[in-house]
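Lecture notes, continued. The same structure-token format from the folding unit now serves as the input rather than the output. Read the line below as a description of shape only.
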């Protein structure tokens, strides 16, 4: 039983798709698409040299075009802060007098937090707006 060349190209495409799934390296997917293009070339009756050339050209073109676009999209994504990093820079309302001693309370992001001032000579009275500059354990450092 003689297997046509296009079947071998499809087997190669599947073989290149497996590392894509296992390693999440998109280059394997681009090689896999190149192998499919080689299979189409073989199915149209072209010889081995045009098949390999189509595989190489399609694979290289995809890598040259898709990778830079993907890199721009990855680098351009805004980084979303979470946890205490998301609280830094936010404003809060003083509920109980806040000073350097750390006995005060603020309302930050809908929650009650203990707070202390960044500068030892500052104090904030209930109702004032403060900026959160840091989180030290379970205490917000404000100014």
């Amino acid at each position: 039983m003689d297997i046509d060349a296009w079947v071998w190209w499809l087997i190669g495409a599947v073989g290149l798709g497996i590392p894509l799934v296992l390693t999440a390296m998109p280059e394997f997917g681009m090689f896999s698409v190149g192998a499919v293009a080689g299979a189409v070339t073989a199915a149209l009756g072209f010889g081995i040299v045009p098949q390999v050339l189509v595989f190489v050209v399609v694979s290289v073109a995809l890598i040259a075009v898709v990778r830079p676009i993907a890199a721009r999209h990855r680098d351009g994504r805004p980084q979303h802060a979470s946890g205490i990093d998301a609280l830094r820079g936010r404003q809060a309302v003083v509920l109980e007098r806040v000073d350097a001693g750390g006995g005060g309370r603020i309302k930050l992001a809908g929650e009650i937090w203990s707070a202390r001032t960044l500068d030892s000579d500052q104090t904030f009275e209930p109702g004032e707006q403060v900026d959160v500059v840091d989180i030290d354990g379970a205490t917000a450092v404000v100014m």
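Point for the exam: The first helix runs from residue 5 to 23.
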